[in-house]
Amino acid sequence: MINFNNSPFTGKEKEYISQAIDSGKICGDGKFTHACNKWFEEKTGVSKVLLTTSCSSALDMSAILADIKPGDEVILPSFTFVSTANAFVLRGASLVFVDIRPDTQNIDENLIEEAITGKTKVIAPVHYAGVSCEMDKIIDIANKHNLIVVEDAAQGVMSTYKGKALGSIGDYGCYSFHETKNYSMGEGGALLIRDAANVEKAEIIREKGTNRSRFLKGQVDKYTWVDKGSSYLPSDINAAFLLAQLEKADVINDARRNCWSAYFNHLKNLQEEEKIELPIVPEECVHNAHMFYIKTANLEERSELSAYLKEQGIGSAFHYVPLHSSPAGKHFGRFHAEDKYTTETYERLLRLPMYYGLKKDQVEYICDKIKEFYQ
Question: What is the domain class of 13-246 according to CATH?
Fold first, then answer.
């Protein structure tokens, strides 16, 4: 059986976890947490990176930092995971869903401005499959209308847009280190803060609303409750697991991109025959091979192909049920203008196995079985 996903493992995870345990400090903000934060700060160039318990937690913190209140509106794609929406719904916002582009599955930047109202507070672009949204235009629109940009870069670690790391372009960026991601700590995430002026508030929110971070830096002689917040710190054991992978980030990234390219090269004939569609990566984007997917003709064909691959011992998966069609999505939001590509993409897209450790002959076997299906 070729699994759809296997969690990354480099070999040093157990050693680092043992070191964390032996240090006597396994709660948040230990040695390994600080090392991970520093690694991302150097990699992305933002003012501050804070590891969190999940990408959902990072998104929640972004919504608090954006001062979302009941009645505010947030513009986002419907083709995304529920966490993107929940973060803002929990603060009382209404969701305005915008259609996606058919090439990248990202929010259509040309439809955002017409969805803006006097209540709009945030634009939340989602970088699907680690391929960047058209961030220059999104930032221009945000600046024009004095809006905050929260990047859901859950799938975007090691990806760039015009040389800039995903998650570092908007006001806030959110990463995921769930076991399905390129780099994992089981459950975990990170908040990227572009502007230094927002760092102290973020640290307060992350530390249960206290100024404990200032206390640990020797800036105050005791710490106390100063604002709203919650507990968003992951255990240093989780951070130890993650650091082992960050130290081999380029090795993992290269291996995944090699698998991605192998898929593309083996399946491009089927695309030329117009039997499937393959991923498109715009010139200005460098992707991280987070996933490889194909688009079938329709929902029925996708279901048949998925079942056929399962019979051949190959795991596959479809992606997000569009949020605007879900019970909660209908209650908390509305779809602006026409749903031209969102639902169609959901019905046609099939994800293939992609993980660190996937072998070349396994990719070839998967591609051969897809070709057999279409023959």
Answer: alpha beta
